[in-house]
Amino acid sequence: MGQGSENLAHIFHKVETQQCLAKDEYKASIKELRLNLLQLQAQARELSIPVVILIVGLDGSGRGDALNLMAEFLDPRHINTHNLWSPTDEELQRPLFWRYWRAMPATGEIGVFFNGWYRDPFYENALGSMGDEDFERKMRSISRFEKMLVDDGALVLKFWFHLTAKAQRERIRTYRKNPGSGFIVTREEIERVEHYSQLVLTAARGITVTNTTEAPWFLIDSYDRRFRDVQFLQNLAEGFRQAIEKKQNAPVHTTSTAPLSHWENTASILDAVDLERSVEGNGYAKQLKAQQKRLGTAAWKALEQGISSIIIFEGWDAAGKGGTIRRMVQAMDARLYKVISVAAPTDEEKKHHYLWRFWRHVPRAGFVTIYDRSWYGRVLVERVEELAQFHEWNRAYQEINDFEYQLVRHGIVVVKFWLHISHEEQLQRFRHRQETPWKQHKITEEDWRNRDKWDQYKRAVDDMVAKTSTTLAPWHIIPANSKRSARVEVIRTVSDALEVAIRK
Amino acid sequence: MGQGSENLAHIFHKVETQQCLAKDEYKASIKELRLNLLQLQAQARELSIPVVILIVGLDGSGRGDALNLMAEFLDPRHINTHNLWSPTDEELQRPLFWRYWRAMPATGEIGVFFNGWYRDPFYENALGSMGDEDFERKMRSISRFEKMLVDDGALVLKFWFHLTAKAQRERIRTYRKNPGSGFIVTREEIERVEHYSQLVLTAARGITVTNTTEAPWFLIDSYDRRFRDVQFLQNLAEGFRQAIEKKQNAPVHTTSTAPLSHWENTASILDAVDLERSVEGNGYAKQLKAQQKRLGTAAWKALEQGISSIIIFEGWDAAGKGGTIRRMVQAMDARLYKVISVAAPTDEEKKHHYLWRFWRHVPRAGFVTIYDRSWYGRVLVERVEELAQFHEWNRAYQEINDFEYQLVRHGIVVVKFWLHISHEEQLQRFRHRQETPWKQHKITEEDWRNRDKWDQYKRAVDDMVAKTSTTLAPWHIIPANSKRSARVEVIRTVSDALEVAIRK
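ok -> structure tokens follow
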């Protein structure tokens, strides 16, 4: 338990008043709230706000009943409740948050997460299986996750349904005596009552860390059923109202390149790349074969051991991404890999956070996913073409680092390539494409336009590498003026990474 | 084994020639095929043809190597190989074909299914765990499934890689001695060699039943590696070519209402509905409560027993679908149900068969999915508004019956409601909506347009009920001039259905 945390539980004092509400007063409030909520839901839907509601709290607090009341009041067609019981095997084979991402509401929809992403860490820390340091790290990472949703326009409201120890004991006793329809008090719940004070201290710490302006906590005094419901629905309505107001008054962001002007005279990391490297004649075929053989073997072994990998290809137009990917997959059994070519998002994808579509494709244990362009589009093309605003692409570095951290922590091998060619080499390749009949489709007006923005892209690449080359997922800048040398080096790098993971 | 099936295996004679191909000839053919295939893939992509390739055959036939060669030749960004190993628990909780539907390629993409949907029934029948009758039924249902894909514009090509018994034994022996990188001959495979003759007879029967013009089988003599690859790729190219030609020369279908003209003077099933039924004053509240209580209890029990249910609401505009659904979900814990309001398909959904979007949402074991409008839109609004062509909606009855059959066979409770009101009652409700400020948004120009087409809709409902009211999934036509009576009856019907399933 962290220092001074014994005193943290005082945050719950103001919801331990055991206040009650008379029936008449309840009925009047509820009637008004019902109408309000339905209207607020419709307004949020019109404004395309995705709403995330977390229902967390003590056993016996009746948070399930409160949830049912809310569900009854809102338009059921645009609300989806997720009770994430034990993870399925498809979920277990992916990073923890995959199950939350797949349940994330689209714009205009409401996603209710019963127990949210808090229950497990709360219990694990309270019962001692998760140390305090891990717990705090976990809470901070949850905070970043929630901030990311809010930054993207979501409304995140978190409710903690509280009871005093005495009230909880009584409540559980009553439930046991009068089991409602289907509602069962489990042995586990009864045992957990014994850990009331640990749990409440942990919750106090967790709530304190994660109670942010972006994703606030609402503490609900749950002693009296009527008082509980009214408080809950009032806070919910207030949360909706604030989000709607915020959205309506949102400042119009304009893209700004100012913060990066100091870069102009700075040397680029790309200038240091030795582009003269190449592989001589026969050496190429031999080296390529050798590396492909390594990769093919490693891919099968990775399957056996359940090690997934994600290989990302970014690089200049005509840098040879497609050809390199083809040489790479030649080495592997077709049942083991999947190539994802990142194009414009679909309309379902557009209704979610930009990382959602990449979470969708996180591979199951043992498989290889190859990205021909990737989530880095956010800080490359979307930045340069001003498709994302400054505050959007600027916060993406941290979001991407968090995402990759989760992948790597789950045991996924992440390898990132930037295929680098010189400005002159690109020109020659463009010309060659134009002159070769069956390559003409590979060169478009857009490629020439991108070429004109070479320096802006260069700056974006510098920022990207500087900000997202982490120990866990470093960038590999591959000199690619010689296609052959680039192919061999890429396949060697992937094999190295897989072999290291396999040996572990 | 069916009568005369002993002779069926002769279908394989022509691929037991053990023909070989010289290296030079192989190289020349392969080079040409490579170019052809890449072009054909691009053409199919331009024509938005989804391509389904099934790679099936005997162990040791090298079908995996052939698949890898194909994957190497085609554009890897638009091909996806599915080796459906043991089903995951998410798959086990849904009808068998859910796993194939979720892997189905979108238009312009290629989906390769290793072992397809044939391997399991072939082995089960050959090794005796699936009787001949079940096997034939299974094959016929597969044929209908494939026909459905093809009717929708897909190309379905099926390959059987064949070997003689002697050649298979030798091949497996060689593999065991020289295990390739990662390739392992399992004990299971060695044992299966003993069942060669049963398996080949079963395969012959299965292939004979499912070898249709729509989804043809290609038998590949796999004795010689080079001969095998060339045959395979040639047949593949030929399949592509024919599909492209067919698509380019496709007749322009025009919607025709002719086949149904004999209906004009026929009595409608809806005319026989007694619309005068109603529930008196206090009786309503009491009856509703009683039925809601039954439903709430049944929903928890269904969760315990892993029984899912799908409740479908269709009916006239203003028939009270929304209000009825709200009364229904009031009865259930919000964690147990999901309401899906069927709107226009998303662009991802448009790239698939119209049933794909419904397969996506098939609930996991124990949950309730409620559809506010459903797949019946195909034979109602899409028919009447001519959004689907005659041949499209006309074949949908059979497709829907097949779909629901799979749901029910998996143990899912399917309940279908048509909420029926009179033409006059609809007019009154429309007017009431127009006059009530907070109901005005519920009435649009489209509602009035639909109302003008009352008779056409009536005819469509008659056809729908006649053709899709099956023993397993009957239609319930609910008189709904009295909203109260309709609500009670709907909830009672659902409770009945759930209780019957729970008692089983």
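The two ends of chain B are 33 Å apart (CA to CA).
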